[in-house]
Write a structure and sequence with these properties.
Blueprint: H1 2-16, H2 18-55, E1 60-65, E2 69-70, E3 73-74, H3 85-94, E4 98-113, E5 116-125, H4 129-133, E6 137-140, H5 145-149, E7 154-157, H6 159-165, E8 175-178, E9 181-189, E10 204-208, H7 209-217, E11 224-229, H8 235-249, E12 260-264, H9 265-308, H10 310-318, H11 323-358, H12 368-394, H13 398-403
Helix pairs in contact: 1-11, 2-9, 2-11, 2-12, 3-8, 9-11, 9-12, 11-12
Length: 405
């Protein structure tokens, strides 16, 4: 009964000073709300990054040709003629963890159709490209292996090309001209939108890589090769096998520098997520300062409350209350203030995250873990910052407290 009576006294004391209690909890409300909102923004941004990385395809390994050094100027990845069609065929045939391969030729061209034109990217790929990139078709189909082997003048276009060259729709079966060469449209890609780099993924035309090599680049080598591993956990082994295969085919002996580079998209995702985590930590730390300030505010008010209620404490002790009862009373007051602030702060943070998502179109993801952690932390703040005032109240001399005016 003594415990419940102490709780009742603590709550009654808070009710007597409603405005002060609310203002005291305001620091916790703002701190918790800011932390929830910042973590939600950070998690939302990370989820968007992961979704966009996933939209590029799963378990993808990127193989780049080496660079050219001409007069001290280095061309960068893909500049040297070190990868061949034979290399791509060998990867698919000999590397057991590889399930699909698409050599890639990149270029740009003005595209014409229906008296309209549009400058776009041209990608030379194999028939496996859409499977590697997990890119569905909205209309028509993909060009075939026979089209690739026969240097076929067929293409698959993105939604941006369809919208600008075929405003009336239904482009499948019609002809577009690339560098004055006619290509038959056999399919239209499903819309993907913009990439992490701000590039319109739908603004491109896919053609067989053999056609791109013969009719556009007029080169016999490949600058890039897209490879898909059988599973995520097999990617390191596949990368190592690809590297060993290329070293053997290119006669690269031990100690010599590779004339190719093998990378996977996880590196891209890790780099993007590392930056996002750093920003989330920074914003969360700044918001966390508000929690610290809120805790200091609770301690300050509780010390003031102890001073104001010194005589009341003396009377309670005189009628039989123990020091532990006084300590518990003031601890309950501090914890109730901080938990009340925590609950209101969670509501504020969730509301702010929803507002930013709906009005400002910012990606947000509300984490139940963050909400739970914020609630527990707010209670810990109440205990941590309320213990000293509570102990000070418990240590008052009853006689001196009764004499206090």
């Amino acid at each position: 009964m003594r415990f419940f009576a102490t709780i009742f006294v603590a709550l009654r004391a808070l009710r007597r000073n409603k405005l002060r209690s609310i203002l005291t909890a305001l620091g916790i409300i703002i701190g918790v709300g800011a932390v929830i909102a910042m973590v939600s923004i950070g998690d939302g941004a990370q989820a968007r990054i992961e979704d966009q990385i996933a939209s590029l395809g799963q378990n993808i390994i990127l193989v780049y040709a080496g660079s050219v050094n001409a007069g001290g100027a280095r061309s960068g990845y893909g500049g040297a003629g070190t990868l061949t069609i034979g290399d791509a065929d060998a990867m698919k045939a000999e590397v057991r963890d590889v399930i699909a391969v698409s050599p890639e030729i990149r270029g740009n061209s003005q595209v014409l159709a229906n008296g309209l034109n549009w400058a776009t990217r041209i990608l030379g790929e194999s028939e496996d490209y859409l499977a590697i990139r997990q890119w569905p078709l909205a209309e028509g189909g993909m060009f075939t292996d026979q089209d690739v082997r026969g240097n076929g003048k067929v293409c698959v276009i993105g939604r941006t090309i369809e919208n600008n060259l075929f405003p009336d729709g239904d482009p499948v079966g019609k002809t577009i001209r690339l560098r004055n060469l006619p290509f038959k449209v056999v399919g239209v890609l499903a819309a993907k939108g913009f990439s992490l780099q701000g590039v319109d993924q739908d603004d491109m035309v896919l053609i067989p890589y053999t056609s791109a090599m013969k009719r556009f680049s007029r080169q016999s080598y490949l600058p890039y090769i897209n490879v898909q591993a059988a599973a995520a956990d097999r990617m390191p082994a596949a990368e190592e096998e690809i590297a060993e295969l290329l070293r053997d085919r290119h006669h690269i002996t031990q100690g010599r520098e590779d004339d190719f580079t093998v990378r996977d998209q996880q590196e891209i995702a890790d780099a993007a997520n590392a930056t996002n985590r750093a920003m989330t930590f920074l914003l969360g730390s700044v918001a966390g300062v508000s929690l610290l300030v809120g805790g200091i505010g609770i301690m300050n008010i509780m010390l003031v409350s102890v001073t104001e209620r010194t005589r009341e404490i003396g009377i309670r002790m005189a009628v039989g209350a123990h020091g532990s009862d006084i300590r518990l009373q003031f601890l309950i007051e501090a914890v109730v203030l901080s938990l009340m602030g925590g609950i209101l702060g969670i509501l504020l943070g969730v509301g702010l995250a929803q507002f930013l998502s709906q009005i400002e179109h910012m990606p947000t993801l509300i984490s139940t873990v963050a909400i739970g952690a914020a609630f527990v932390f707010s209670g810990a703040v109440g205990i941590g910052f309320g213990y000293y005032p509570a102990s000070k109240a418990a240590q008052l001399d009853p006689i001196e407290a009764l004499r206090y005016e």
